[in-house]
C-alpha cells in the first residue's frame, strides 16, 4: 500500500506476483495493491513505473484503487511503503471489525535494512529503479519467511 497506488505499490505487487509465479506458489497467494488515498482510483501506474518493470521483463495490468474495509478482513498481510502509510492503515484498521491483517512496512524485510521505500514520483528513472530493487529484496525476504 502506498499513498496513490501508481508508483511504489504497483511495483511491489508486480514484483511479488512474478516471484510467486517463478516459485510456482502463486496458487497460495492473493496479491494486490491499493492506495491510502482516492486520488488516482482507476488510473494505470505511472509510465516510469511501467517502464522500470518492463526493463525487468515484468508486465502489469494494475489499475489504482483505494484500500477497502474488506481488505483488512481478507488479507493476512498489508505491507506499506512508509510511516505515513503505516499510521493511516493502522488508524483505518481500528475502524474495522474482524481485522485479520498484519500491517507492517515492506522495508521491515529488507536485508539491507532500508526500512522506508521512498516515493519516486517527483524523482527520475533512477529513483524508480531504486524502488524496484528494494521491492525485489523485500519481497524475496518476505516470501522466504515461514507463513
From TrEMBL:
Its EC number is 3.1.3.2, 3.1.3.48. It is an enzyme of class 3 (hydrolase). It is found in: Cytoplasm. GO terms for cellular component: cytoplasm. Residues 1-145 form the Phosphotyrosine protein phosphatase I domain. One of its GO terms (molecular function) is acid phosphatase activity. It catalyses: a phosphate monoester + H2O = an alcohol + phosphate; O-phospho-L-tyrosyl-[protein] + H2O = L-tyrosyl-[protein] + phosphate. Pfam families: LMWPc. Its main location: cytoplasm. The active site is at 8, 119 (proton donor). Keywords: Cytoplasm, Hydrolase, Protein phosphatase. Belongs to the low molecular weight phosphotyrosine protein phosphatase family. Acts on tyrosine phosphorylated proteins, low-MW aryl phosphates and natural and synthetic acyl phosphates. This is Low molecular weight phosphotyrosine protein phosphatase.
Amino acid at each position: 500500500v502506498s499513498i496513490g497506488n501508481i508508483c511504489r505499490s504497483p511495483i511491489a505487487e508486480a514484483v511479488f506476483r512474478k516471484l510467486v509465479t517463478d516459485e510456482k506458489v502463486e496458487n497460495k497467494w492473493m496479491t494486490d495493491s491499493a492506495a491510502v488515498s482516492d486520488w488516482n482510483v482507476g488510473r494505470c501506474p505511472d509510465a516510469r513505473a511501467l517502464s522500470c518493470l518492463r526493463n525487468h521483463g515484468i508486465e502489469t495490468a494494475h489499475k489504482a484503487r483505494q484500500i477497502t474495509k474488506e481488505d483488512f478482513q481478507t488479507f493476512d498481510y498489508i505491507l506499506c511503503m512508509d510511516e505515513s502509510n503505516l499510521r493511516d492503515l493502522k488508524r483505518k484498521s481500528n475502524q474495522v471489525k474482524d481485522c485479520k491483517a498484519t500491517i507492517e512496512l515492506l522495508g521491515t524485510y529488507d536485508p539491507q535494512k532500508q526500512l522506508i521505500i521512498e516515493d519516486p514520483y517527483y524523482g527520475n528513472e533512477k529513483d524508480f529503479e531504486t524502488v524496484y530493487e528494494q521491492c525485489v529484496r523485500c519481497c524475496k525476504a518476505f516470501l522466504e519467511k515461514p507463513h
